[in-house]
């Protein structure tokens, strides 16, 4: 005997056959009542839903990777994800509702034909929507695109005060730029007067008022690096420039800038004539230009800025007259006012009077373009820094260039042993972070545009270098200035030698530098060859830090093995370095950090007592204090056993073929 359920299915089948003959259009509607069609639609729905879930997961992963790279997601992809989430949720709810409906009808034994019809038809509709979205995702060759984020200073006017003398200059610049015949505007004045701050504020306001579609900024410096300027401008335009000749880069940049409708290009810190054609910046032949001189702040404006930097309490304190005299002694220079005001926070009357005396009897300074009043004010701020450690960090900043990364400052500080009693790198980093931000709060350092970068104002850096040369017997050459080595007596007192952006090709002297602890050679031309005599390091027994990054060396001078107090050695990107005398590395018994990434050393494997012609990685096992290691090797089989059982806190070992195209990287980082 047939059950009611089977009898119902037979009746539905007979009705469908009858309708097929008498009314074909109606058949297409009644087919939703058939059990096998209903089940097929439901199974198709579940299958397509799972397919779309897989596609969604794939797109979400690509989107996450793109966001990590700082890329912007395509609008169509974001809309697709919203649609996919909606249709998947809708389909899942449908399946859930269908299952509960079946259970309510005598556990599925007595189906409701009306409900079956509705569910079957809806399932078919849902399947079509899922399939369409699945087809659409196949068209997504890319899910994101690179963006050119606005610089931080364009989003905030932090640190800017709208003094009347500056407001009028801002208005004049704006009026000039609205003149169609003007394409170039110059803003000039003495160092520390606030030119950069003013121009950045104008750019921020111009961007806010939509006077320009784009604003790009590049620092030129005393010795312009054309490729660097081109690269900075191109990066902010989203233009990729290959490492080709300057004139080719200039042509590409020129064409790109010509396509911009309204763009403001700011070239800061220009010290001498700069050929815009060489860079690739277009400007009209017949266009006029304007120059604006920025003068000192008025007495009223100077006192207002001084109060802001020192605190409003100075207005009501008993030594206000002295404070006013101190502010006046700063000569209306913003950089002098800010550094002195910060330095004298919470100081006693005696300290205020002493500060006034020092400002009124300025030191002699040998740096062109630094007014004596400014020099004295910055030196005074230096004197009021709390503790010798903070002062040493400040002076060290000036030895590694105007702009630097916190991680580089950390390496030098650790190498020089500036953190007494601090043994862990993470503790040292936290300590340095606090010290650097204290210098920032004293207006002696400024935060860079990139994460964990800082820089010194040119004037502050000049004063810091002057103090370092005078008090620490530092010898520093910047930007390939004309120079000669100091005489023998001066070298014997030298604590640090720093050659920044220098074209030095040869060191022909055997230096006698018994007090030297810091040596940094930064070539102006990347990978420039430098001939160093084999006995160069013979008279430098106290050296703690040696940085020869990017220097073109073919071998290390054997005398470097006498540096038994060396704590940090950086040979990163010494691409031609292939040879190191055996047992040199093992002689660095106090070495804590060794950086040899992208060196081409042909490491030898120790075989018994046989003589070697090159260094072996086994020598690293003798360095009991080594905590940081970066090296390249051709084959991981030459890595000594037990290397990773040492107390390495950070290591980066690239393993690849003879060309050092890395195929595997073993790494560990304290700062992850």
Task: Outline the fold blueprint.
Blueprint: H1 4-22, H2 24-30, H3 35-68, E1 72-73, H4 75-104, H5 113-137, E2 144-145, H6 164-177, E3 182-188, H7 195-208, E4 214-221, H8 226-237, H9 246-258, E5 263-270, H10 276-279, E6 288-293, H11 299-310, H12 320-329, H13 334-343, H14 349-360, H15 372-383, H16 388-399, E7 403-405, H17 406-416, H18 425-441, E8 446-447, E9 453-455, H19 458-471, E10 474-478, H20 488-493, E11 496-502, E12 518-523, E13 545-547, E14 568-570, E15 593-595, E16 628-633, E17 650-656, E18 662-668
Parallel strand pairs: 3-6, 4-5, 10-11, 11-12, 12-13, 13-14, 14-15, 15-16, 16-17
Antiparallel strand pairs: 1-2, 7-9, 8-9, 17-18
GO biological process, one term: defense response
Signal peptide: 1-23
GO molecular function: ADP binding; ATP binding
């Amino acid at each position: 005997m047939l059950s009611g359920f089977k009898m119902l299915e037979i009746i539905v089948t007979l009705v469908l056959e009858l309708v097929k003959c008498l009314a074909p259009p109606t058949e297409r509607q009644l087919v939703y009542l058939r059990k096998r069609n209903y089940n097929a639609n439901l199974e198709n729905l579940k299958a397509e839903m799972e397919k779309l879930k897989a596609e969604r997961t794939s797109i979400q992963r690509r989107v996450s990777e793109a966001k990590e790279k700082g890329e912007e997601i395509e609008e169509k992809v974001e809309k697709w994800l919203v649609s996919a989430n909606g249709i998947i949720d809708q389909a899942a709810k449908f399946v859930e509702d269908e299952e509960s409906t079946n259970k309510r009808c005598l556990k599925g034994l007595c189906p409701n034909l009306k409900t079956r019809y509705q569910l079957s038809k809806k399932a078919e509709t849902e399947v079509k929507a899922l399939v369409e979205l699945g087809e659409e995702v196949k068209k997504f060759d890319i899910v994101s695109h690179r963006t050119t984020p606005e610089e931080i200073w364009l989003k905030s006017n932090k640190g800017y005060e709208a003094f009347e003398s500056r407001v009028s200059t801002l208005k004049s610049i704006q009026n000039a730029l609205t003149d169609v015949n003007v394409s170039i505007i110059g803003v000039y004045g003495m160092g520390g007067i606030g030119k950069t701050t003013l121009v950045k504020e104008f750019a921020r306001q111009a961007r806010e008022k939509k006077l320009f579609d784009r604003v790009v900024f590049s620092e030129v410096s005393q010795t312009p690096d054309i490729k660097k300027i081109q690269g900075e401008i191109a990066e902010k335009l989203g233009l990729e420039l290959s490492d080709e000749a300057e004139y080719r880069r200039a042509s590409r940049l020129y064409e790109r800038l010509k396509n911009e409708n309204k763009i403001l290009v700011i070239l800061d810190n220009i010290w001498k004539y700069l050929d815009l054609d060489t860079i690739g910046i277009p400007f009209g032949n017949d266009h006029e230009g304007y120059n604006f001189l920025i003068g000192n702040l008025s007495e009223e404006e100077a006192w207002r800025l001084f109060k802001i930097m020192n605190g409003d309490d100075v207005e009501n304190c008993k030594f206000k007259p002295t404070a006013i005299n101190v502010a006046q002694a700063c000569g209306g220079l913003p950089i002098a006012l800010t550094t002195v005001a910060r330095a004298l926070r919470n100081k006693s009357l005696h300290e205020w009077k002493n500060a006034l005396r020092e400002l009124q009897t300025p030191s002699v300074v040998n740096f062109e373009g630094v007014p004596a009043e400014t020099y004295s004010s910055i030196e005074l701020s230096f004197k009021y820094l709390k503790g010798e450690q903070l002062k040493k960090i400040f002076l060290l900043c000036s030895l590694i260039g105007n702009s630097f990364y916190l991680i580089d400052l950390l390496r030098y500080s650790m190498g020089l042993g500036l953190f007494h009693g601090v043994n862990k790198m993470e503790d040292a980093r936290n300590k340095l972070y606090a010290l650097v931000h204290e210098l920032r709060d004293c207006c002696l350092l400024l935060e860079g545009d990139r994460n964990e970068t800082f820089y010194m104002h040119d004037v502050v850096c000049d004063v810091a270098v002057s103090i370092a040369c005078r008090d620490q017997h530092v010898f520093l050459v910047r930007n390939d200035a004309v120079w000669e080595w100091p005489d023998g007596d001066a070298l014997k007192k030298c604590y640090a030698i720093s050659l920044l952006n220098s074209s030095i090709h040869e060191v022909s002297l055997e230096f006698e530098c018994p007090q030297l602890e810091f040596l940094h050679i930064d070539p102006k031309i990347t990978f420039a060859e430098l001939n160093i005599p084999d006995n160069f390091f013979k008279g430098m027994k106290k050296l703690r830090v040696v940085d020869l990054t990017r220097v073109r060396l073919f071998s290390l001078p054997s005398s470097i093995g006498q540096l038994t107090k060396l704590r940090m050695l950086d040979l990163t990107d010494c691409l031609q370095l292939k040879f190191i005398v055996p047992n040199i590395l093992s002689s660095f018994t106090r070495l804590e950090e060794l950086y040899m990434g992208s060196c081409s050393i042909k490491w030898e494997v120790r075989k018994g007592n046989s003589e070697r012609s090159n260094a072996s990685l086994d020598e690293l096992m003798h360095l009991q204090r080594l905590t940081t290691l970066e090296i390249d090797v051709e084959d991981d089989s030459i890595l000594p056993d037990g290397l990773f059982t040492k107390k390495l806190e950070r290591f980066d070992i690239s393993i690849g073929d003879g060309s050092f195209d890395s195929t595997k990287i073993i790494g560990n980082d304290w700062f992850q």
